[in-house]
Amino acid sequence: MHQVMKGFVAAEVIALSGCATLPKSGYTPIAPIPAPSESYARPPAIAFDRSDYAITLQQMSSFYDVPGEAGFSFNGGDYGFESLSFIMTETQPGGGPPLHKHDTEEAHVVYFGQIEYVVGDRRFKVDAPYVVRIPAGMPHTFMNVSARPVNVTGVFPTKVHSYTEIGPNPLVRGVGR
């Protein structure tokens, strides 16, 4: 741990001396502009060639959840994965998905921002960077409580992931779904 910390401090010094630049916001914009007024789910815009190793956003299904969560997802089995599926989102401040569950466990990977979660009967906030563990079948949702948009990557240990919407996001006020 001591060696890792020394390397981290050295990297920080290099960044501060102008040899490297840090991102201003910490997230990658992937949402449609302007934001849609209604939720949607769409198939991929272009086909994926299974001989490729990289999967672009245009080759994934897209979705938008009011208020302020845009994303892309794919079932890994359709893209050559034996046991992984993914969701990538851009979630605006105050935005988040409906309360929902999956048949398998899920991991959320977040590098920037603060998100408030409901997982089962627990409610908590976490500052990035982090990984959140969501057990299989557990109702869950989240809301971005940061001042800027955040990216959330959801990882599923299955080649076909499920999604069952349960109801509105209890963290988001004034949203009727």
Describe the protein in words:
The chain is mainly β. The chain has one helix and twelve strands; from the N terminus they run αββββββββββββ. Strands 1-2-3-4-11-6-9 form a seven-stranded antiparallel sheet, with no helix packed on it. It has a three-stranded antiparallel sheet with strand order 8-7-10, with no helix packed on it. Strands 5-12 form a two-stranded antiparallel sheet. The termini are far apart. The model is unreliable at 1-20 (pLDDT under 50).
What topology does this entry show?
Layout: H1 2-16, E1 40-42, E2 61-65, E3 69-74, E4 85-91, E5 99-101, E6 106-110, E7 114-119, E8 122-127, E9 130-134, E10 140-144, E11 150-156, E12 164-167
Antiparallel strand pairs: 1-2, 2-3, 3-4, 4-11, 5-12, 6-9, 6-11, 7-8, 7-10
CATH topology: Jelly Rolls
Percent strand equals: 35-45%
Record the strand order, biggest sheet.
1-2-3-4-11-6-9
If you compute it from the alpha carbons, what radius of gyration comes out, rounded to the nearest whole angstrom?
Answer: 18 Å
State the assembly state of the protein chains: single chain
Largest sheet: 7 strands, antiparallel
Unreliable stretches (pLDDT < 50, length at least 5) are: 1-20
